[in-house]
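Reopening this one. Same input as before:
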Amino acid sequence: MKERFVMSPKRLSVDRLSVDKPRRPQVIRYSSNQVEAAVLRANGLTYDEIAKRMGKSRQWVSEALKRFESVVRFIRDDVQRLQKAKYFEFLFDRSLQAKIIREHAQRRVREFLEKGLWPPTIKPPYGFRRREDGLLMEIPELQEVVAHIFYGYLNGKSQSRLASETGLSRSQVLGILRNPVYKMNAEIRWAGKLWPAAHKGFIPDDVWEAVQSIKLKDKIKASKFGLKFEKGQLVPDREKVEVLRNIFGMRAKGKLIKEISEEMGIPSPSISNILKSQDYLELGIIDHKTWRKVQEMRIPAGRTAVFIQKEKMMKRRRAIHDLLLKSGELTRFEIAKKLGLHPATVEKHLKTLEKLGFVSRTGLKPVKRKVNYKGRIRIQTHYARLWKVKTSGFHISKTERGYPAKPQTWPKGSAPDLMKKRGREIRAKLLETIRADSNITNSQLAERLGISESTVRYHLARLREAGLLEK
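Same output, byte for byte:
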């Protein structure tokens, strides 16, 4: 028999001075046998039938039901209140508990935001402190740091440089630049919405808008060679315009990137990035003809350009599959270490194998790694996904690969000439195919010629420009 207890407050005694003196609440006891007897009685059974079924005497049943009746009468109102509030569902359903608590917290946050105040459950933004009434107050010494970030970014400084100057992280700098809480007509951003704030910011609205006009999500373009920011806009640096034109001119004449690097005194990776950047074309530093010629020179002149062999990907995936088959469950970091690959490369191949049905995810494994935090080495633990083999037989047909099994090579020669020759061959085949079947679609053309649809669309456009084809 299991006993249960219910706290029952006694009446409060009142002395002559009318001061309430609470006493210890009374404990009402009842057992599971009493509950069982009450359930049977509610189903219409007599005392004798209940006693026989429970193995008790008739007198015990009578006294137990009388005692339990007083308990039920006492707690009836409280139980009804709990049922009305759906307390029992709340008590036993963990997901419902979390949902109700979360919704209540969100309602509290909205109550503050509708008044333009900062919610107490959210940490105040950098440079502000929260008063007891919810109003944000500026912190003078941190206000100067925020102003330095905004004006420095507007004048062309990168987020990384501002982070090193202020002692903040790059993500903190980015968060400050995006936050409308700092502008004069301050707003609070929460849950994808903007709420008018009761406080006044210290960054002029035009400065804040100019900062937002810069693509914060992209890398800072101010770091590109020969470009700078003036009043929030990207403009050419006059001192370096001629250098840029010389770089593009030398490349258009067939010089190698290494030769240009040695002559101009600029690292080869920087030269390569300059030649790929379209900003110089859009800003008028380089004319369209030179730009187009340089882009056609992406294959070095006079050299054999062997494209990346796609079959190498198959070998890596097979190696990953065989390793999982041999070792069981592994994380991408363990696979990368054993095969000498980068974890990101392993993750990409694992996702491809998962789509094809060869591997599957099983769970998580704690992984420790060293992190350099402000000059101190810390050990952090994060969880990496475990992978295992789902299908032991590894085979993908040529049609499922989506790319040729053999490497594609270019013969020796001038890259522009090769590109033109290849283009003429494709256009000649296109004309022959269209002449044979005028109702053929782009996808059918791509399939017959063994090229992509985008290539088909490009060459069809060139044929229309030449007047050899009509829609």
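So the earlier flakiness isn't reproducible anymore. For the record, The chain has five domains: 3-10+26-85, 107-223, 227-296, 311-401, 415-465.
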